[in-house]
Amino acid sequence: MPPSAFSVLACRNSIRRIALASISHAPQSSMPGGELTCVEENVNASEPASYVPTWYTATMVPASARPPLTYDFDVDVCVVGAGLAGLTTAREIARRGWSVAVLESRRIAWSASGRNDGFVLPGFAAPMDSVVSRVGLEHAKALWALSDMGLKYIRATIAEARLPGVAPIAGWLKASKIDNRDELLDDAQLYAEEFGTEIEVWPTERVRDVLKTNHYFHAVHLPRAFHIHPLNYALGLAELAEAAGARIFEDTPALSIDTEGVRKRIATPSARVRAAHIVLACSIHLGSLVPRIAGTLLPIWSYTMTTAPLGPRLAAAIAYRGAVTDTNLASNHYRIVGNDRLLWSGHTTTWEADPKRFVRRLKADVAAVYPQLADVEVEHAWSGVLGNALHRMPQIGELSGGLWLASGFGGHGINTTAMAGNILAQAIVEGDDAWRLFAPFELVWAGGSIGRAVMQVLYWWLDTRERLAARAARRREQEDVRLAKRAALREGYEETGVEAQLGAVLPREHLPAEPQRGELPADPVASPAIDRRTVDEPLEARTPD
Asked: For strand 378-388 and strand 341-349, is the pairing parallel, antiparallel, or unpaired?
């Protein structure tokens, strides 16, 4: 579920403009004190939570379930949500010597943190040109540096702790379905010169050398990006947080929060936690805990499948081991996992649907891009939901005294959750104010059910428009190839055609002169090798030899 920071397509800007024009904004009031209640959707506290079956759960490292909270206690910081943002926050706070507890209503990385595509790259879900337009270039540079810090943090954590089963593989390729070389070069220049990013623009020939399809033209390549097994990374991060002193409780939903007083209180089904600071790190699963915050996020579902082992068939189609995204609105995201399986993600809905319904569509997408992989066998299919703010930037900051938010990572969450966890830990423990860089990206109401309907219709319309543009680009390329072949044949005809053949029989002086404009062609010249009589001699005047 990883949209790209390098998406500067006009259609995506259109979504933002149309949505902002169509959906009202909520009042920007300060967070009130008092008791707030929450029961997360589909939580049954009487039954232990289990993971949704995915390829990740089928290949996860051994992990014992953490017990639920059953006793009251005090802590410096309580984090709600054991996804990547919550786990990073807890680890970094514990490393600084503060006591911290994490409350998770289901299992560690149960939702988007453990079901995403595993792409790790700098930037945000929002394209950087829109960020620059909103806050200016220097401010945007500071934000970009924070996002890149998140990537470096993950790389260092995996390497230093030698996390098992994470298997980072370098490289991310964003392939274009239209021939927009000049646009990609301009974008690459911006990222290289202004943001200090190592970035390459690959020509069509190089792209097609590793991705054996005519659906792609030029591409942007980030050699420092990488992809991972996100669930195993989250499980390893949880162990690191616990080793630093954090306590994690699974099957422990936060039912209510009382924010009055110096010590805030969080109620769970069996106990209460008292804390000086609370971090809300459950994104789209906030439910009614803080209704005003929950209403600022659009829930977006995407759908993923993994194939059975494909053997040499896969290697013959995809010779690139990094992650791949194309430039469709509902981008196809894919990568090779488990040596010879294809993990493929795509399609977007603003309402949850059965992922089995999308298997046929995902297989059709694979076959459209790679006909040589038509009718692959699918072993796993699942969906994941993410929270997307209308401005598509993370929601990071202090809502009121001691109540903090890390949310809205918009499908670009692996690096930005690491970034958010570090920012909040530094803010809470050390008083650092880097989180204020996100203040211009306000809490904007997402429109509720109407907003979801508007975005779904916009998605369908713009996705259709992009697909038509991609088909038109391929048709233009096919026409260019046809015209080039015709020109080559014409050139060959002129060099070795009829005139050259006649020249081998007749001397040049016996060939008819080219007529001038307005003249009739000259009478044909008889070949002396055939008959030396003139062509005007009557047939009856000829005598046999």
From this structure: unpaired
Single pTM value for the model:
0.79
Cα distance between residue 347 and residue 383, in whole Å:
10
Task: State how far the alpha carbon of 311 is from the alpha carbons of 226, 338, 364, in Å.
Answer: 23, 11, 20
Domain that holds residue 270: 6-49+59-112+239-297+389-446
Q: Provide mean pLDDT across the span 417-444.
A: 96
Which residue intervals of 276-337 are DSSP H helices?
A: 291-294, 312-317
Residues 104/238, Cβ–Cβ less than 8 Å: no
Q: Which CATH number is 245's domain given?
A: 3.50.50.60
- Residues 6+ positions from 403 with CB-CB distance below 8 Å: 31, 257, 259, 264, 277, 278, 280
Question: What sections of 291-381 are H helices per DSSP?
Answer: 291-294, 312-317, 356-369
How far from 423 is each of 85, 117, 405, CA to CA, in Å? Answer: 11, 24, 11
Number of H helices, E strands in the chain: 15, 18
Mean pLDDT of 500-526: 49
- What is the sign, positive or negative, of the torsion defined by CA atoms of 99, 104, 107, 109? negative
CA 368 → CA 119, 215, 332, 357, distances in Å? 23, 8, 11, 18
**Average pLDDT over every residue of 33-52:** 50
Number of domains in the chain: 1
Q: Are 155 and 161 in contact (CB under 8 A)?
A: no
